[in-house]
């Protein structure tokens, strides 16, 4: 992009000289020149900007094409009006249906989603269909200065004369957004659709229902969204994941959803809805306890991943309810497929259910997997009656072959994705260890880690053959999908897009590349260069992507830091809350005191430092509590710093957990917490922390957040820390207790 800017300056100078010369000419000539709104400047050439994803073929021809603000944007076919308007809104050019500097058209002999661009004396974008043309337009935007993403191009704009031909490897380049665990409103979804569209993603699957929420209006059962869209406060749905004290959430009305669908369609994105059945249905079951196997309404408080959440497959009325729901869903969404879930069903409840047993006997079913198969088949029939097909998570195939045309999403791993493909299903490959962007990007960053800890480079490294798919299996891959499950977003300021962006970008850039480009060959270094050049565009789009951690070195008493992604470096001295600009090596005998971070635009890196900065210590301590310890997860599990411990019952107001050290611990920082390591689950929902230097006198140091608290710079050696609950229950039958994390004095 820098070269392009340099050339731009040259062109402006050349243009200025030309204008000066023109002034000397006759008035008729003057008129002719000023009416030229676009054209080629031949004696100037310009480097091709870095394009992501990389097009199949690029040929650079001579010169640059200059376009003025008075130029028009024309389209050849009424069907192309939405994409013409889309492009015009970025370029701020007038749309015309006859002639223009930029012409959009269709060529039926080309494939779906294929396009070609010719930049010469004007710009022509030709698509095999609407999608093809849209793809071409997203490439055209990348040929232009990045200001187009802010919709403020400064005219004239210059783009290199070239010919580009391109088409995607996979017909389905998807992204799944979990809007349940964290409520993501209509505007935020649209804003994210914009960013996805710039990367040629063509499917957005909305995970609309789960244990924690129901996010889509169902007119025949309005309570599902009206009540199920909110948790906490006076809602019957229990609060979770850091939003404890308020009624929190929302849902999409059908009208909202139509707007989202339209908005996405203009951007070549199909919205696929997911109604997660029969598991992950605790929200629905809280509102309608009768859907469960257990007849007795089960009103005890429940939590995410709760085992009482599976619908009873043997309760006939459930199919009527599902029919009502899916009837509306099928009508609302134009997509061919409706995702009906099928993941993580706890079948123990079916095993205990007399109704399920009777049904199994009646149909000679030998396993609860067969019962699951029965359920999925019944729902498939319902969906088929509305003219649609079903998509399911991979576990749904465990009970036997599913109806022709069923699409399977392989999420548990590569093996499961391959199995679906071997069995002949149209398969979406989305193994968690490559494509779950709720996973951490390095060990000390936020995120889950059950599938893997990985950054963009692992995503970029994925190729079907590389992970063992055979050519035959590849035939059945319909596409790839990346995803963002949002349990952890709720406690990371969900009112801003920052956490969503940070987790998904630039991993999503790498994903867009491999889902598009038709090769299994990878060159991470050159891709990285292209990706960093693309950061100019992400900045202009306002994406808060993750930068690589700065590289930090301490050599001969000098501490230095560097980045490779064009970001600015800052450093912090431990104990101070100031970010200073880093402008050269720091002479110090205490490198561990310093930590570094980088920023550019809204993007930022994780903290980096010499290893000693992160070192923690493990002094001996004891846990005591007003609650008895669990038999299995005894307190000594946490006392050994290895694992977490549990209490044997839920907390009540006034319950406490105390950490008592054998000897007072001098430290610069200490974190004490209830709950699990990554997710605020099994915590004290509300409470406060007290510290004692002598084991007798306690002083309050703060309220807990997400179950714990970081105590900064204790004045003296810490003898005890006590966490006290100020609320009753936490949605589980126990409280988890983590070992403290203690950073020594530096
Ligand atoms: C597994 S993906 C799940 C989700 C969680 C996710 C967290 C799937 C079918 N089930 O319910 O949110 O892991 O990474």
How many DSSP-defined strands? 37
Structural class: alpha/beta
Structure ligands = ligand TNX
The Cα radius of gyration reads 29 Å
Strand order of the largest sheet: 1-2-8-6-7-5-3-4
Unreliable stretches (pLDDT < 50, length at least 5) are 1-34
For the record, give the distance between the C-alpha atoms at the N and C termini, rounded to a whole number.
43 Å
Strand proportion, as a percent range, falls in 15-25%
Q: Which percent range fits the helix content?
A: 25-40%
Q: pLDDT average, as an integer?
A: 92
The biggest sheet, with number of strands, parallel, antiparallel or mixed sense and barrel status, is: 8 strands, mixed
Number of helices: 21
Name the overall outline.
globular
Give structural attributes:
single chain; disordered N terminus; 8-stranded parallel β-barrel; 8-stranded mixed β-sheet; about 750 residues
Structural features, described:
With 746 residues, this protein is α/β, with parallel strands linked by helices. It has an 8-stranded mixed β-sheet with strand order 1-2-8-6-7-5-3-4, with helices on one face. Strands 9-10-15-16-17-18-19-20 form an 8-stranded parallel barrel, surrounded by 6 helices. Strands 28-30-35-32-33 form a 5-stranded antiparallel β-sheet. α5 (186-198) packs parallel to α7 (254-266) and α9 (316-332) packs across α12. Bound molecules: ligand TNX.
